[in-house]
User: Fold this.
Amino acid sequence: MATGLNEQWFKTTDNPGVAGPPRELVGYGEFPPKITWPGGAKVAIQIILNYEEGSEKTYAMGDDFNEDLYELPYKQEGMRDLAIESAYEYGSRAGVWRLFRVFGNAGINVTCVAAAVALERNIEVAKKLAARGDEVAGHGYRWVNHFEMTRDEEREAIKRAVASIKRTVGERPLGWYCREMSVNTRELVVEEGGFVYDFDCYNDDLPYWTKVHGKPHLVTPYSLVVNDARFVVAQGYGSPEHFFEYAKAELDGFRNDGDGVSRMMSIGLHARFSGHPSRADALARFIDYAQKTGDAVFVRRIDLARTFIDQYPASKALGSHGG
Assistant:
């Protein structure tokens, strides 16, 4: 019988057959698995270096858009924007090398999520990542939104990214995090067959297992809370000190979470942002603080994934809470 009400306002479930992965709202609940990180650390910190410079949308590359994640809220329309292009060039020319010095001085390795074309255009960065023993995960072929692609285009982009990174770094990527995933991304990552994990989501403080077409697949969620893009977006960090304070508060919160569970923490960096001296200094001070706590460890994301797999394999996880 007609009620005159718009039933859309009273939905309780997603539509049957909606494209993309099912929403996973319940998770571990009150009792997450207790994982032992290296050295018995309470918090496993992954520094994620997003390396994108030279692969972003520009009129120079034939795009009809200039990427505008940039220090100032201005850009040229319908033509090249040399100001933005040169700000990105700072990351690959100077910023990334300053960050390498910070990491080297602290004696830590990081995970670099690299747009493959960015490494192709600055092969010395690829060589340095390999020489340092950093992990290189896939960040797309170019730094463009995957939701703008057809399924076939996205499949090809993943394929080309894997092949390119294998050429420039010497090893294929085992992790995946693209720019703005599509409803097809996770299925295509699993279909490709060589990835250990993806982190195209932001929904937990621990890795978790899911199923994609019946196959177990590991997700290691990311976080945008301690991410240096907040230096250039509204209501973000107003100073390097804000970055340090946020990072310190996040770490201290994990250290004192109250349930005895050891968790993971993500820090997102970009060479064109944190590669500037003032911001690099705040990063270095946070790393020093974290190391002196005695209960935090810096690990590459692939190491975190493997630790989790060893202690909480898919057979145990999917059998206990259904994925």
User: Anything to note?
Assistant: Residues 38-69+77-321 form a domain with the TIM Barrel fold (CATH 3.20.20.370). The chain has a mean pLDDT of 95. Residues 106 and 287 are 7 Å apart (CA to CA).
